[in-house]
Amino acid sequence: MFKVTKTVPNSPARCTTLQLAHGEVQTPVFMPVGTQGTVKGMMPRDLKKEVNAQIILGNTYHLMLRPGAPLMKKMGGLHKFMAWDRPILTDSGGFQVWSLGDLRKIEADGVRFRSHIDGSEWFLGPKESMAIQQAIGSDIVMAFDECTPYPATYEEAEASMLMSMRWAEQCRDHLPVSPQQSLFGIVQGGMYSDLRLQSLEAISSMDVEGIAIGGLSVGEPKDEMMQVLDTLAPHLPHDKPHYLMGVGTPADLIRGVDKGIDMFDCVMPTRNARNGTLFCDDGKISIKRAEFQDDPRPIMEGCSCYTCQNFSRAYLRHLYRCKEILSSQLNTLHNLHYYCALMSRARQAIQDERWNEFRDAFLKRYEGS
Asked: Cα 368 vs. chain centroid, distance in angstroms?
């Protein structure tokens, strides 16, 4: 079930509610990425109590290789396997097999590829992706698509988009019978406005519960990504959730909300945390820098996360330089808390009818302009 709860005059920004099998999700929302059945460095308890993650991601490609769909089904699905009782969205595996490059071969009904783990041969297509996601038991399943590379010629982008649309129809035909799972279709078409609109029209005409925008954050300049969102924003169906896949920085999220995006995911906060890069309203902090050697301040003044409430920048720098596991844990907790709290602040600004002021003030401070 889906409901728009608040809109913004003269802007596509909005608040919505998704009622899923494992709970309610309030948007705009950021979804931490748990590729292999875990958000790296985080216990499910802390994801709920410290980060307040409403929904997380799993990945079909990685889970089909390890531990495998049969075991997922035997263990009662991913929720029980990883002790997570809130909603889960699973990527279809399309992006992952696309990223294999020479290890994959695209065929009419899917992709034949060699595992990045042991070189074994596998096949993944719409039918297989739907079956695996059924075994995983995710609340939201993604259609299997072919991610258009960047750069791509018009002809390449068109052929890729049309294949994704055919595969989306097959996903709809093979959708798991469980009423607890919702299917999102994925809009492709590269950087070409007419192809994007054609893809959106095709996906919107299918019986899908949500609209995802894929094929972005694949190396294109930010202005081209925003141009695609500008093209699509006026045409996104009002009665379905809008999900921007794999994006991005805090500024990207705020700009995305302003263009009508409801849902975001990205590995950036967790990956950067492990590399010593932390996010705050003033931009990014590289905790490894010498200037923080004796800095008693938290990462961000006013942040309510466990890391900021208890530890100094000096201590976090010390942990990182000593390669302590706690460094990744505390850094990840802060970054995920920051991302989820930022979306909570965005929701509140929309509800309080001060979205434009919040958006402008945040971007000015974050980007230092």
From this structure: 26
Residue 47: predicted pLDDT = 98
Average pLDDT value over all residues in the chain: 96
Same domain, 241 and 338: no
Q: What is the SS3 assignment for 285?
A: strand
Does one domain contain both 253 and 308? no
Residues 329, 243 share a domain: no
Query: Count of domains in the chain?
Result: 2
Catalytic residues: 91, 265
Taking the complete model, does pTM exceed 0.90, yes or no?
Answer: yes
CB 30 within 8 A of CB 342: yes
- Residue 363's domain spans which residues? 276-369
With a cut of 70, say whether residue 245 has pLDDT above it.
yes
Phi, psi (rounded to 5 degrees) for 337: -60, -45
Cα angle 29, 31, 35; round to 5: 170
Strand-strand pairing, 283-286 and 277-280: antiparallel
Residue 271 domain flag: no
Query: What contacts 80, CB < 8 A, 6 or more positions away?
Result: none
Query: pLDDT tens, 182-226?
Result: 999 999 999 999 999 999 999 999 999 999 999 999 999 999 999
Q: Cα–Cα–Cα angle for 280, 284, 288, nearest 5°? A: 115
Q: Rounded CA gap, 314 and 335, in Å?
A: 17
Q: Which residues contact 60 (CB under 8 A, 6 or more apart)?
A: 90, 91, 92, 93, 96, 124, 129, 132, 133, 136, 142
